[in-house]
């Protein structure tokens, strides 16, 4: 008898599968397609347990679906541009490309050691010119469609990474990558017009029924739609007007001041002749040093300055002082707010601090507000002190006042979104060059598509002070204008790497195509992705950007779907000693060690068994041992029966132990099929397989052998998506020629699931006291006799009156005694 030695079988099968092309995508027209995708990794160096967990789930799905008769697309690639490569290059005096490709080679090898069923013919590497050529092509598509533009403005700048960041990459005022406090800088940068898609990105979330609610909520909040009214105020002594955005036009008569964001473009004009000009300029500079988060935090101190100028109230004609304050954001609404201290908390606080009037215009129905107010009243009520609108319910007044303003052309109903356009310029080397040329004659000129790719120059200064690394390579910078042939210079910023990952899942469908980013017809056959598996941290980054890209490609007629990911699964973290596994915490368990000690199958079985996939998994060395022992049990079971398989008797499971094992086998098939499929709960599936293994071990020697062999075979089939090597080896030991991974998924026989006997819970006065097992055909009287005969029940019932005897068929008995 051979012992279970993973080292002897895993490499062997991996090689065999590669040689026989087991993982090559099949595109057969008589089978349905299934696209299973795990978020591709950044090639940081080596795999961590989070990767292993992610890939084990994806691999299980891919194998399960293939056995269920689907053509399965299950590709892998590398999100290979990005800062760490550049930082490592600076540190090691090497080139980012060699660092990146070394890491890819190492990590690809690790993935192969896990026996993952990826189709390596479709591997994608975003830093490779045959990929980023098409990223540039897509940038030009956006440009042609008016969706890529350059603008000057205040941008988020990370001093540590010395590059700008998109809003999505600033988390609580800090850089998403390095945690450094982000500052504002005025720069001219490229943007993608994601705000054009805000409404569709919002409403289409409702169609994503197989996405976690949590992710959808995060996207909704990020898009931040708000319905309101723009109200136009005149400016005393000046031309023009000031528009404010308000969600509460019902409070219009309670306005006692206006506040502008320090960045508001009208400030300079209306204070040009003001004696306070210098004071104002100084104030603005002060405020702008603070980040957005600091400025708007609920507990942040509100600071403001009176401009000395006045606005004209659109209804009353009153003069309203114009202030500048830190709590008004420049890029939300109109960057100007009407101050209603009586009914808005922030305004109340501000008015108190600067002694501005507070005017009540909404009275609650059940009490009279006491003036002076101790706090803003933000509830519902009836309008007072509001001219012809007095007496209206404030919710009705929102409508009435908006309509009135619209009629007088002093306002307009609008919506505002929190979502901002996506800033994509990066002052870094290791990214996709933006295919744009600047010519003195022709201005901004896109590089013609047939001249792509604009190759990244090899030689640059990585730590150029005050400019992008690409700007240090003169032969890159200086070029000729594609339009007039004259002298021109190239754009020297590179693209945000989130652009690379916004379309890679589409490229996989026709990964090697040389004439276009993808083949529309092939893409439409495979996409949307049926199951997308990855971390929650991408909720408003990658997942929002990819949805945006897909919609643009749809509108350009290049794909026929509007959402890229039909079903999204976000997995939990891998933790140890209660904390996320990380180098800095020193609590890392390395995948290589687990593989060399126990084999890949144990690692895979363990990560799928130790916790439901959406929960955090607390690493336990005993748990790994347990998984290894379980696989050993399966090994010995199959090994011990290999000779019986050689002369396999037909099964007879009409009665006795054979019937019971047959039923258990089919119960396991049903359970595992549901768990792998709709329920997406792998730990319970493994439990069901373990129970079946236990039953086979306990099966009497003299009972029907054919039934036993059927059960053993079923164990291997059910386990094969989780532990592909051991099951393949045993499958062969049992005498099969063809790979277990090409077998049909077992189906259950409904006849086997019919229960002959049913367990009833016995309650006395609603409390569970015992359980009885009765034939499924038992009558009510038979059940009653048996229930009352139980020791514990007798004690409670004897000598008492039975008031009621309730039978819930198939479930429980309740005896009510007085
Ligand atoms: C007057 C008012 C009275 C307001 C009241 C609220 C309550 P949401 O729901 O988030 O869209 N606001 C508008 N633009 C702003 C900006 N750029 N920076 C800071 N605050 C701004 O919030 C909309 C409300 O936030 C608007 O309605 C405005 O204050 C403020 F009793 O206008 B409100
Ligand atoms: Zn030109």
TrEMBL record:
A motif ('HIGH' region) lies at residues 41-51. It holds the Pfam family tRNA-synt_1_2. It is an enzyme of class 6 (ligase). Residues 40-183 form the Methionyl/Leucyl tRNA synthetase domain. Residues 220-405 form the Leucyl-tRNA synthetase editing domain. Residues 659-779 form the Methionyl/Valyl/Leucyl/Isoleucyl-tRNA synthetase anticodon-binding domain. GO terms for molecular function: leucine-tRNA ligase activity. Residues 406-620 form the Aminoacyl-tRNA synthetase class Ia domain. It is found in: Cytoplasm. Its EC number is 6.1.1.4. It catalyses: tRNA(Leu) + L-leucine + ATP = L-leucyl-tRNA(Leu) + AMP + diphosphate. Gene3D superfamilies: HUPs (3.40.50.620), Isoleucyl-tRNA Synthetase, Domain 1 (1.10.730.10). Keywords: Aminoacyl-tRNA synthetase, ATP-binding, Cytoplasm, Ligase, Nucleotide-binding, Protein biosynthesis. ATP binds at residue 583. A motif ('KMSKS' region) lies at residues 580-584. Belongs to the class-I aminoacyl-tRNA synthetase family. PANTHER family: LEUCINE--TRNA LIGASE, MITOCHONDRIAL (PTHR43740:SF2), LEUCYL-TRNA SYNTHETASE (PTHR43740). NCBIfam families: leuS_bact. This is Leucine--tRNA ligase. The gene is leuS.
């Amino acid at each position: 008898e051979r012992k279970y030695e993973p080292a002897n079988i895993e490499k062997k099968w991996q090689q065999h599968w590669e040689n026989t092309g087991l993982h090559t995508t099949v595109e057969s027209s008589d089978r349905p397609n299934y696209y299973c995708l795990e978020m591709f990794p950044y090639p940081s160096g080596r795999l961590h347990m989070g990767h292993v967990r992610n890939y084990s789930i994806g691999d299980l799905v891919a194998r399960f679906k293939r056995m269920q008769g689907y053509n399965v697309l299950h590709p892998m690639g590398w999100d290979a541009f990005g800062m760490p490569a550049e930082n490592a290059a600076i540190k090691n005096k090497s080139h980012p490309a060699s660092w990146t490709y070394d890491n890819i080679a190492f990590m690809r090898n690790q993935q192969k050691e896990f026996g993952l069923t990826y189709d390596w013919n479709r591997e994608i590497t975003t830093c490779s010119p045959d990929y980023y050529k098409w990223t540039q092509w897509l940038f030009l598509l956006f440009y042609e469609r008016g969706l890529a533009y350059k603008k000057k403005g205040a941008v988020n700048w990370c001093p540590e990474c010395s590059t700008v960041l998109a809003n999505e990459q600033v988390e609580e005022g800090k850089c998403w990558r390095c945690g450094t406090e982000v500052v504002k800088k005025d720069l001219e940068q490229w943007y993608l017009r994601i705000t054009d898609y805000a409404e569709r990105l919002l409403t289409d979330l409702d169609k994503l029924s197989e996405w976690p609610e949590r992710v959808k909520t995060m996207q909704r909040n990020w898009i931040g739609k708000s319905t309101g009214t723009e109200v136009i105020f005149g400016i005393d002594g000046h031309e023009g007007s000031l528009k404010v955005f308000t969600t509460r036009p019902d409070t219009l008569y309670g306005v006692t001041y206006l506040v502008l964001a320090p960045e508001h473009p009208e400030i300079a004009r209306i204070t040009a002749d003001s004696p306070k000009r210098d004071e104002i300029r100084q104030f603005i500079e002060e405020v702008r040093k603070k980040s957005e988060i600091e400025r708007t935090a609920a507990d942040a101190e509100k600071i403001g300055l009176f401009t000395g100028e006045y606005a004209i109230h659109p209804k009353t004609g009153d003069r309203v002082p114009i202030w500048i304050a830190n709590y008004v954001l420049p890029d939300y609404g109109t960057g100007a707010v009407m101050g209603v201290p009586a009914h808005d908390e922030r305004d109340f606080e501000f008015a108190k601090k600067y002694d501005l009037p507070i005017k009540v215009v909404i009275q609650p129905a059940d009490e009279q507000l006491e003036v002076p107010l101790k706090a803003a009243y933000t509830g519902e009520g009836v309008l007072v002190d509001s001219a012809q609108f007095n007496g209206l319910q404030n919710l009705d007044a929102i409508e009435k006042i908006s309509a009135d303003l619209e009629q007088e052309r002093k306002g307009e109903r609008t919506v505002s979104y929190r979502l901002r356009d996506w800033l994509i310029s990066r002052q870094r080397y290791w990214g996709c060059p933006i295919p744009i040329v600047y010519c003195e004659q022709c201005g901004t000129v896109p590089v013609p598509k047939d001249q792509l790719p604009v190759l990244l120059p090899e030689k640059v200064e990585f730590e150029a002070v005050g400019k992008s690394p690409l700007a240090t390579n003169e032969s890159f910078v200086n070029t000729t204008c594609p339009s007039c042939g004259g002298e021109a210079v190239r754009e020297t910023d590179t693209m945000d790497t989130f652009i690379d990952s916004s379309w890679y899942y589409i490229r996989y469908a026709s990964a090697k195509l040389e004439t276009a980013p993808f083949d529309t017809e092939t893409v439409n056959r495979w996409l949307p992705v049926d199951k997308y598996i990855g971390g929650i941290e991408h909720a408003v980054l990658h997942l929002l950007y990819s949805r945006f890209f897909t919609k643009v490609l749809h509108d350009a007629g290049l794909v026929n779907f509007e959402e890229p990911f039909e079903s999204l699964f976000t997995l939990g973290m891998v933790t140890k000693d209660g904390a996320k596994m990380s180098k800095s915490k020193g609590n890392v368990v390395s995948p290589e060690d687990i593989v060399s000690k126990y084999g890949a199958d144990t690692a895979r079985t363990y990560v799928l068994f130790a916790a439901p996939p959406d929960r955090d998994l607390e690493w336990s060395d005993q748990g790994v041992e347990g998984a290894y022992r379980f696989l050993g049990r399966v090994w010995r079971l199959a090994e011990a029966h290999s000779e019986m398989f050689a002369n396999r008797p037909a099964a007879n499971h009409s009665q006795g132990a054979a019937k019971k094992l047959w039923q258990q086998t089919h119960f396991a098939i049903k359970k595992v099929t549901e768990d792998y499929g709709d329920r997406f709960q792998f730990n319970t599936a493994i439990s069901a397989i373990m129970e079946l293994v236990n039953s086979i071990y306990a099966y009497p020697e003299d009972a029907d052998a054919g039934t036993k062999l059927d059960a053993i075979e079923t164990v291997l089939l059910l386990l094969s998506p989780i532990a592909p090597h051991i099951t393949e080896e045993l499958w062969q030991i049992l005498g099969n020629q063809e790979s277990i991974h090409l077998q049909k998924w077992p189906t259950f026989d409904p006849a086997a699931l019919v229960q002959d006997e049913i367990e009833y819970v016995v309650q006395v006065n609603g409390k569970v006291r015992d359980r009885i097992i009765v034939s499924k055909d038992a009558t009510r009287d038979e059940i009653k006799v048996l229930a009352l005969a139980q020791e514990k029940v007798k004690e409670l019932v004897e000598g008492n009156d039975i008031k009621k005897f309730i039978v819930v068929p198939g479930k429980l008995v309740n005896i009510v005694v007085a």
